Amino acid sequence: MPSFAAPESIIEHARRFYAEGAVPVPARPAATVLLLRPDQSGREGFEVYVLRRAATMTFGGMYAFPGGSVDPGDSQIRLDLSGPEPAQWGKRLGLPAGQAQAVVCAAAREVFEEAGVLLAGPHPEAVVGDVSGDEWEVARQALVTRRTGFADLLRDCRLALRSDLLLPWSRWVTPEFEPRRFDTYFFVALLPAGQRPRDVSGEADHTMWIRPADALARAEAGGIAMLPPTVITLAEVGACPDLAALPAAAAGRDPARPIMPRVELAPDGSARFVLD
Q1: In CA terms, which of 78, 113, 167, 182 is 20 to 30 Å from 67?
Q2: Which of 210, 211, 164 is nearest to 190 (CA)?
Q3: Which ranges carry the Nudix hydrolase domain (predicted)?
């Protein structure tokens, strides 16, 4: 039964919740994406893009992956997909087709809003190239401020969402004692050629590319802070010897099974995250 040290702020949330006999708030559906690329130092292996949430954000100070909540529009839009259809995604994610489309749409939308990476192309074998120019930034800002929708943006650019580029990996639910809770689907995606993620959202105060093993070593040494879903996902993805092994690894997983860490409070006042 794996366990992890819990930050003091989270311990306080847990103590207060249990002492008051509070009722858990509903977990909002969300999606996050691990962007991966070959190791740029020439070594074998690969790197993952991580960002540190700004102190003003939920889970501020923690390193995580680009992502966010599902918006109402994610399930209401008519979206051009190049890849699995909503019904197929539903079977994979254990959701009704409409909800599955919303999660997949949120994953692609959030990674564009937050990291400036667009998983879309003009036809099933292509992905759009560099999307860091001024015109793309105007389109991204319109999406962030909800002056346009994701489907409208893709349609105006004559693109379809490359849903086949998103590999479903896992599903994590925020512990019941947190005041804001998320039911988050984790996806893995290779960084499209010609694109580069960048901090454009204002929701992070630091970003970096790092090998999964190096990120875990720094977290173990206390150099960077990460919550259990990030730690475990990095360990799982990092177990793949190279990027070519990822599709098979993802196909063998059950991304519909929810995982929810809980906190065990010890008599001495210490606490740890526990995964059953």
Answers
A1: 78
A2: 164
A3: 26-232
Reported as a single tens digit per residue, the pLDDT across 107-148 is 999 999 999 999 999 988 899 999 989 999 999 999 888 888
Decide: helix, strand or coil at residue 43. Answer: coil
List of domains in the chain: 25-260 (3.90.79.10)
Distance separating alpha carbons of residues 268 and 272, to the nearest angstrom:
12
Q: Compute CA distances 159 → 151, 192, 224, whole Å.
A: 9, 15, 38
Sequence-separated (6 or more) residues with CB below 8 Å from residue 186 = 31, 32, 33, 34, 65, 168, 169, 170, 171, 172, 229, 233, 255
pLDDT of residue 8: 76
pTM of the model: 0.92
Can you state the angle between helices 86-93 and 97-115, rounded to 10 degrees? Answer: 90
Q: What are phi and psi of 173, to 5 degrees?
A: -115, 130
Which tokens in the block code for residue 38? 């070959």
